[in-house]
Write a structure and sequence with these properties.
Layout: H1 4-9, E1 14-19, H2 27-36, E2 39-42, H3 48-51, H4 61-72, E3 76-83, H5 90-93, H6 97-114, E4 121-126, H7 149-160, E5 165-170, H8 179-194, E6 200-203, E7 206-207, H9 217-226, E8 230-238, H10 243-254, E9 259-264, H11 290-298
Parallel strand pairs: 1-2, 1-9, 2-3, 3-4, 4-5, 5-6, 6-8, 7-8, 8-9
Bound molecules: (3S,4R)-3-hydroxy-2-oxopiperidin-4-yl beta-D-xylopyranoside (XIL).
Length: about 300
């Protein structure tokens, strides 16, 4: 196959990309994104601050620009993200307790209703665990509403759009030996045992010298899949874009039947949130990097 998306489709998977609405006027960007990928995640446009800037006033302008571009170009769409400590609008940052809990549920209902039946996977909850060795939840206004905030979000999400796969998404959870990975594993196992609706786990996979790729990532994916959830690589970028690491990540996904696909977090290095890491598959001029060829050959 000659594109990443077509190559991934041969095994029933997708190869996706984060798309930013403000790049859709860049002809080089658009031609690469349209040609190479068959899944799209909005990089920022479906987040809480973008979709509900004022309480009770939803705004889907930028989100719909990304969504409509994706669908018009034949791509599936991953939804990102509904409940998160970051990129909250000011009104939500200042809420707490039962008012915040209700606002979270209202937000899930508002956004998921707008896209009901149109989103393959939703990142319902993003980044709820703390970094480091504690295995604890991250402190946040949402966490302070009660430890059950994550399951409340997933139950609301299932009711709002029963057709979407509901994912928990996080970073630094790829290495099986990390405490954060074990904490996330215990939560997913508990949810499955108690019937809390969860369908998938997203591994952001922002690899860099501080949080490097480890070959036990495949074990992690396998162990989560064995709990009865799908898995996905949701925001892949790798400092320096070494071809061998990119190929390893793709091979890890392909080795796990419940791995749905891989999404890279941007098109060209200049589009990356960590552009100084030159972590992506395309040079700034739009030409293919060695890692691109490594990924295509691995798929
Ligand atoms: C990042 C975007 O790429 C940036 O443009 C934005 O300024 C901050 O957020 N984990 C996530 C993504 O789940 O939403 C983040 O995206 C990167 C880390």
């Amino acid at each position: 196959e000659s594109t990443l998306g077509a190559a991934a489709a041969q095994s029933g998977r997708y190869f996706g990309v984060a798309v930013a609405a403000n790049r859709l006027s860049d002809a080089t960007y658009v031609s690469i994104a349209a040609r190479e990928f068959n899944s799209v995640t909005a990089e920022n446009e479906m987040k809480i601050d973008a979709t509900q800037p004022q309480r009770g006033q939803f705004n889907f302008q930028a989100a719909d620009r990304v969504y409509n571009w994706a669908v018009q170009n034949g791509k599936e769409v991953r939804g990102h993200t509904l409940a998160w400590h970051s990129q909250q609008p000011g009104w939500m940052q200042s809420l707490s307790g039962s008012a915040l809990r209700q606002a979270m549920i209202d937000h899930i209902n508002g956004v998921m209703s707008h896209y009901r039946g149109k989103i393959t996977q939703w990142d319902v909850v993003n980044e709820a665990f703390a970094d480091g060795s504690s295995g604890a939840r991250r402190d946040s206004n949402l966490q302070r509403t009660g430890n059950d905030w994550i399951e409340a979000a997933f139950r609301a999400a299932r009711a709002a759009d029963p057709s979407a796969k509901l994912c928990y998404n996080d970073y630094n959870v790829e290495d099986w030996t990390w405490a954060k990975t074990q904490a996330m594993y215990a939560m997913v196992r508990d949810f499955k045992q108690r019937g809390v609706p969860i369908d998938c786990v997203g591994f952001q996979s922002h690899f860099n010298s501080g949080s490097p790729y480890n070959s036990n990532f495949r074990t992690t994916l396998q162990n989560f899949a064995a709990l009865g959830v799908d898995v996905a690589v949701t925001e892949l970028d790798i400092q320096g874009a070494p071809s061998s690491t990119y190929a390893s990540v793709v091979n890890d996904c392909l080795a796990v039947s419940r791995c749905l696909g891989v999404t890279v977090w941007g098109v060209r290095d200049s589009d990356s949130w960590r552009s100084e890491h030159t972590p992506l598959l395309f040079y700034n001029d739009g030409s293919k990097k060695p890692a691109y060829t490594a990924v295509l050959n691995a798929l």
